[in-house]
Amino acid sequence: MRSAQQSLKRCIVSNSNISLLESTAPHENRAFIDRHPVVDQCRSVWQEFNLRIPQIAFYPDTVIPHSRYFREVFSVVDNNDIDAVLLTNERQSFGLERFRSARDLFLVPVVNVSGKPSVVADVDFSLKAPKSWVETASCIRKFRDRRARLSSRFLSPTAPAVRMMAYLFVSGEDLTPVRQPNSPYYYAYKGFPNTASATMVAEALANKGWLERSFFERYYKCAGCQSHRLTVREECPACRSPQLSEADLIHHYSCAQLSPEADFRRGTALICPKCSKQLRHYGKDYDKPGQIQVCARCKNTTSEPVIGFLCQDCGMHVSGDAASVADVFSYSLSNQSTALLSNDGEDVDRFPIAQLRYLPEELQKKIAQLSSLTGAASDFTLAEVHYGCRDQMLKTRGESDFIAMRKLLADNLQGILGEVGSVYSSREREYILFSGCDESGFTDYLKEALDHAESVLSDKLNPTLLVLWGTREKALS
Length: 477
Fold this sequence. Notes:
Blueprint: H1 2-10, H2 15-23, H3 37-48, E1 55-59, H4 67-73, E2 75-76, E3 84-87, H5 96-103, E4 110-112, E5 123-124, H6 130-149, H7 160-171, E6 177-179, E7 187-189, H8 195-207, E8 211-221, E9 230-235, E10 244-252, E11 258-260, H9 261-264, E12 265-266, E13 269-271, E14 278-279, E15 286-287, E16 291-295, E17 301-302, E18 306-311, E19 317-319, E20 324-333, H10 335-341, H11 361-371, E21 380-387, H12 390-396, H13 399-417, E22 422-425, E23 430-435, H14 439-454, E24 463-470
Parallel strand pairs: 1-2, 1-3, 3-4, 4-5
Antiparallel strand pairs: 6-7, 8-20, 9-18, 10-11, 10-15, 10-16, 12-13, 13-14, 16-17, 18-19, 21-23, 21-24, 22-23
Helix pairs in contact: 1-3, 1-6, 3-4, 13-14
InterPro entries: TackOD1
Protein name: Thaumarchaeal output domain-containing protein
Domain Thaumarchaeal output: 158-333
């Protein structure tokens, strides 16, 4: 982009300006009399990209190094007409999702000004790096232009699934894992600090055809806490101790004894533990055909140690042949979802017929019926029930008992919901359909209904709710 290159050349700051920025920044309580050259140079970049001075909200701190200059380069506002969120402390990024939800800021970029790497940010900005000014201006401009192409139905998304799809559309980027060593998963998704939640939503969307998967990496996960931080080690097959050491094997020709060298050693001499003869000449009396592993704990010897895993988060040990595999994917918008997000016309299916095959047959018919209607009559919200205790109950009680508990929960829930919503069951889980319902209005009610439906069960299923789709996406009043 020629204009970006030209603006970068014009905004190169001299070393003296950088030094001045570091040494003469005024205190926050002093009048800002003379504007620093950096401010004007950065503002010229905004103009090159046909941007107003970006209106921003700080998260979480408003006092940061050189914050006086940040308030000149950006415009801090309290309204909802915001161009970007400035992340000032990457260690508190876990609360960013709640902050953006409260302010309806999921469709503007997050600009990292903390000075440290952050996986949740869309771009990094530094007063000392002119290149970052150009990158930030380009990012804000891209988000602005793509928001203008987004269907008005999705400008204030409330359902997690819709938020993710709308964000991917306006960012113009795929949902790509970023390596994150301090995370128990070893990765995080750009723009979404909660890896577990983002993965669950993305997988649900991919299962319905709204997102397309691409393989990224494969990890082994802990059966106890699901962490991917596992230490891989060779272990003794007898006692599973990793305290193994290599030892030379000695083969005594005359009696065919084959043992570790330590079994032959008597001071400086080699005495056969089987026939008590002294071994004097290598190659004539004996040889050393290889090495063996000796366990310091149980003294067992083996030529083939086994592989084991030790979780660094909960300490659980897992045998190599019993470790579970966790595949990690990147996700991109499908052609169908791109068409839906960019089209304001009523002729666009709210729930594509091609995706109905994943749902129970009766639910397919109902959604097809709703999709054929127009206006408010076609509005519906679809939620999916997940069971946190599924794996544990399958191990302890078996599949038949688990299915029986699910059926009882579904019956109880339908009785509680009455005509408000309908419960449908597939082989794996339950779905709840609400016709003409705003997702923001029933979440608390449904959680209470789930808790009440589970309260009479002999075994807890720990049901949680994932909103897959809401066609009445409106801002919270």
